[in-house]
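During the practical work, I selected for study one protein's amino acid sequence and its backbone structure tokens, as given directly below:
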Amino acid sequence: MSGWKSLSIKKLYNTMRGEFQKVTWRILTCNNVGAPKRIFVLNLAIQRRLFTRDRLNNRGITNVLSCPMCNEENETMDHLFFSCVVSKEVWGKVLKWQSISRAALDWQKKIEWAERNAKGRNVDAQLYRVTLACVVYHIWRERNMRVFQGQQQPNEVLVRHIIQEVTSRGLMKNRPVKKLETLNFYP
């Protein structure tokens, strides 16, 4: 009977759950005011689980490796989201809109930079987390539209959709309103 007094639900839960190492990128997906679908795609992208053509080729599903966005290089996570001329232009304009100036990075360095610079509750960090989720989602969506529907949007339209979504998601919280008022322009 004395053993029951020291038992707690928390201890039982932790024992059943086991010990897991916390992932460093969880700050980018947790506490993100972005739309759940965008955060889900960001989560898949961070874990490198999106089915880019190089992954599909490794599984024997396709022989086509060219990037559907630029048709210049093979499609990989790094290329699709950061090296492709289309995604570079989109990232450049969106980061310019947020007054962030830095060189283009590969995927892993981009996530590490975001982990360091987009943590906390400050307005810039909140907006950057939403922006990261939106840009990754819209580039992935544009890629899929080109692959499966044969349609494509101009980069300006893609950037405009991203900025409008970041603004609308940011306005759902009270804190980013003043910052968003200063960003009230399209690059």
About this structure: The radius of gyration is 20 Å. The chain is about 60% helix and 0% strand.
